[in-house]
Design a protein that fits this description.
The structure is a homodimer. By secondary structure, the first copy, chain A, is an alpha+beta fold. The first copy, chain A, is about 50% helix and about 10% strand. In chain A, helix 4 runs antiparallel to helix 5. Chains A, B: Pfam families: GST_C (PF00043), GST_N (PF02798). Chains A, B: This is Glutathione S-transferase.
Chain lengths: ~210, ~210
Amino acid sequence: MTIKLYCFGESGNAYKAALALELSGLAWEPVYVDFFNGEARSEAYLNTVNEMGEVPVMVDGDLKLTQSGVIQQYVADKSGKFGGRNDQERYEILRWVLWDNHKLSSQNGITRFLLNFIPEDKRPTEAIAFLQGRLQAAYKVLEGHLEGRDWIVGDAITNADISCCGYLFYPEPYGFDRKAWPNIDRWLANIEATPGWKHPYDLMPGHPSDRGL
Amino acid sequence: MTIKLYCFGESGNAYKAALALELSGLAWEPVYVDFFNGEARSEAYLNTVNEMGEVPVMVDGDLKLTQSGVIQQYVADKSGKFGGRNDQERYEILRWVLWDNHKLSSQNGITRFLLNFIPEDKRPTEAIAFLQGRLQAAYKVLEGHLEGRDWIVGDAITNADISCCGYLFYPEPYGFDRKAWPNIDRWLANIEATPGWKHPYDLMPGHPSDRGL
């Protein structure tokens, strides 16, 4: 049975799930969600796919899971990859997945959206500046942690890396300058060099150019 | 060995860890962090307690864990409580813990902070309004999920409830009106009625009145 993943290319949260599936070697296929025309907020989607109105959603036979971190955990449980080798690593991976959801991807996602995917005259400039300030603090934490480390936890790629990199490969400008953070830049290159790695726009259907952007 | 929890009363994220510890029956004691005088951002704290500059931090013998959701998971693993009865419940609990960290507590925490704990003339009013708009969408998701349910997952209190309620008992105004959301109100009353439940200001040291607020 091929795993299905509801997703779209612009979503870094969906990318975390798609990248975990792809790198694990599990058989999966994308189901495109037309987010920018409101599909994820439609009554049909809310009632039958995800009450949270979000991607990603994974369906494996009778099992449906939502939230990128949950799908990543399922991939680890099913494939034996990316989940850590012992309890200490498992807690440490969960720590960085939660931190990412709380402090990094959550604010990267909305900031990139506001700066690139809504009309310029509707951008809440003060809110964007506020979010960018919070993000600088988050990048600083990640940069410090990666000093002397190739990976966030242990000595190989785990779900901690796959979570934290969710929005960091996208080309749209939103205030993240990879070259300004040498440890983050080196760590992202390690992820890019992982066999089977793909850029979000090569891994999932949907691209800003579809909407003339 | 008594578990130590670095925390302070105003932190809803610390409350999630403290409440899980308290309701589990594990022996624990708080270690007060003087957040409002910068302790969590001090070099000493960053270097020896938590590089993320945050509470809560839990120490149990040689083991140190940070992030409320990780500590909650540890309490579940150690006590056998709040972690779900099977894989399906475990994934569903993690789903709501992640959603809470991404969409609910993260934005409740910063919004309450900006509206109550910094000088009125320094408040970023547009950013606050933006965050409050996002929070209304989050309350709506939770309100809908709790329709016909006493608890977020299954038929008893779990870490999903203990996570999502993190900021919802605080008295400081920040745009959450409990009575406007009848299902959330009923669910919070279920939590309050749980044997051993305590309000955050009764469970952890530190209160706004310490700072003359």
